[in-house]
Design brief:
Distance between the termini of chain B: 62 Å
Structural class of chain B: mainly alpha
Order of helices and strands of chain A: HHHHEEEHHHHH
Structural class of chain A: mainly alpha
Radius of gyration of chain A: 24 Å
Largest sheet of chain B: none
Radius of gyration of chain B: 18 Å
Strand content of chain A: under 5%
Helix content of chain B: over 70%
Strand content of chain B: under 5%
Oligomer: heterodimer
Number of helices of chain B: 4
Shape of chain A: globular
Number of strands of chain B: 0
Number of domains of chain A: 2
Largest sheet of chain A: 3 strands, antiparallel
Number of strands of chain A: 3
Largest interface: A-B, 9 and 8 residues
Number of helices of chain A: 9
Distance between the termini of chain A: 34 Å
Number of domains of chain B: 1
Order of helices and strands of chain B: HHHH
Amino acid sequence: MKFLGLVIVCLTGGLLLYGTMDLPNWGDPASPASTHLSDYYIEHIVEETQVPNLVTAVLADYRGYDTMFETAVVFCAGLACFLLLRDFRPGKDRYYRHIPTGVMLHFKNPDTRMIPGNEFEHMDKDWVPSDIIIKTVCRILIPFIQIYALYVVAHGDFSPGGGFQGGVIFGSSLILMAISYNLKTLLKRVTEKFLSMFAATGVLIYVGLGVLAMIMGGQFLDYGMLAPLVPWDPGHIRALGMLGVEIGVGIAVMSVMVIIYVNIVSEGRHDEGL
Amino acid sequence: MHIIINILSVSCLLMGLIFFIGGAVGIMRMPDFYSRLHPAGKLDTLGIFTMVAGLVIYNFHHLSLGVVLLSIKMFLIVFFVFLASPTATHSIVDAGMRAGLRPWTKKKEKE
């Protein structure tokens, strides 16, 4: 079986390498991309889309399909991580800590459990005393990181940034919370259900905008057709459509990042980890 | 006026360069893990401050509201690095102590 896998991987890699032989050379001035496409983008993007950032315009508008399936790939990565790693069996050992004295209890019987309250708290196997410096600084920093992430998403069509970057920054702020406190603190605030719903919602927003354009009488992902929905600013409808798409991408990327982190770090158990 | 701004910003940049070089040399020359974190944490933080201060002064060639906002944003970078960098150094040292790494002493070398 392993040998078969190796053969398939080598064949696929060989085919991909064979396919690259037909690509134009690096920076070839005579290649089709450099002769027609780039010039067209540079000359027409601002008047066609009213978006000053050419990269975002190309990614979210001219190549909307490509970015949509990229988002779907990100979603599939989160889904695959969940399906491969998630483990619903209860953990064998449980650890509790008596808060006033610091005594540790170790339950080996999986059926006995204790309701943590004021006196006892859940404890990870590799628990370390919480560090007040790290906790405080992370508590100060996390809101700013999240605001910055929203800024990056919202300014995708004016300056470098966009949904993928903003989503990653937002996800990393949640991961920072899991690292500085512990995994339970994160999962108490951001539950698994919430994350899965958001991952799907992000892709749905993207596809939904495309379908909405179809319903309004245009082609799939043709944001120009959405103009009647925003009567106060129809000139910037393409920029607004891109913003909506970027918000979808950001939500999907953020939740998939956290899903992957939580599943890997706790080996699918969602109880304890880094 | 322009000459003064240029001199100020270049001297700030040079100062930052000295700090960064000191940090790099320190990381190479210090004897062990903990003492290497000292130049890595301190001199990088100070180097970023002077570098960004130099760039902010250079911005004042064309004074306008946008430039002032940009300068504030640049100083925000410095503010967050000042918060985050010492904390990161602290947590790395903490992890080293927990993992049982002994600090380097001169006695050890003589034995």
